[in-house]
Amino acid sequence: MASNNSGSGVVGELTICGTDPAHYKGSIEWVPLVAETYWTISVGSVYVRGATITNGTQNAIVDTSTSFIIGPTDAVQKVTFSGAKLCSCLHLLSHFQLQNMFSLSGATKAAEGIYQIECSNISKLPAVIFTLGGHDFTLRGSDYVIQVL
Q1: Which CATH superfamily is domain 30-148 in?
Q2: Angle (CA) 18 19 22, round 5°
Q3: Are 64 and 94 in contact (CB under 8 A)?
Q4: In angstroms, rounded to a whole number, what is the distance separating the alpha carbons of residues 25 and 72?
Q5: Phi and psi at residue 96, in whole multiples of 5°?
Q6: Where are the chain's structural domains?
Q7: Which pTM value belongs to this model?
Q8: Which tens digit of pLDDT belongs to each residue from 106-124?
Q9: Which residues form the Peptidase A1 domain (predicted)?
Q10: CA-to-CA distance for 137 and 47, rounded, in angstroms?
Q11: What does the pLDDT look like over 57-109, one tens digit per residue?
Q12: C-alpha to C-alpha distance for 46 and 60, rounded to whole angstroms
C-alpha cells in the first residue's frame, strides 16, 4: 500500500479476509503453498508453443512486489521468440517480465534481463502457459509486454 500524494487520482484498495468480485471476472483458483517462506508454490509445467520448457514440477515464488518471472537456465534456453527487432517504438518485457526465461531472437538487450522488441511484433509473441494447482493459466504477449514511449 502506498499513499497517493501525486494528485493523479489513482487510488488502491486493500481487502482483508475476503474478495471483492467487482475487481475480477470468473472464479479465483487457490494454489496451496509448498512453503510459507516467500509464498512458495508448485508449478506443474510451463508451456510455450505447445512444448513444455520445464522438467517436471518446480517450486516458484509468488511476489506481488516484483515484476519479474525468472526461470531456470535450461528452461530459458529452450525458447526462442522469432521476429523480434528494434524500432523507434519499443516494448519492454516488464509487468510479467520474462527475465532470464526466454531468448529473444533479434531483440536488443536494454538492461540485464530486459529486451526491446519491435512494436508490431507483440501479436507474434507466443502464449506462455503456467500449470498451477492443476489449472492452466495463459499469458499472451500483451500480458507480459508493456509499451514504453
Answers
A1: Acid Proteases (2.40.70.10)
A2: 150
A3: no
A4: 32
A5: -110, 65
A6: 30-148
A7: 0.64
A8: 466 666 666 677 777 778 7
A9: 1-149
A10: 10
A11: 888 877 777 666 666 655 554 554 433 332 223 333 333 334 334 444 446 66
A12: 11
Q: What are the angstrom distances between the C-alpha of 28 and each of 23, 39, 73, 77, 119?
A: 11, 17, 31, 32, 32
| Cell numbers representing residue 90 in the block | 519499443
DSSP state of 60: E
Per residue in 40-53, pLDDT (tens digit) is: 888 888 888 787 87
Please name the residue that has the C-alpha cell 512444448: 51
Quote the cell numbers at residue 2.
502506498
DSSP 90: E
Euclidean distance between CA atoms 49 and 125, whole angstroms: 10
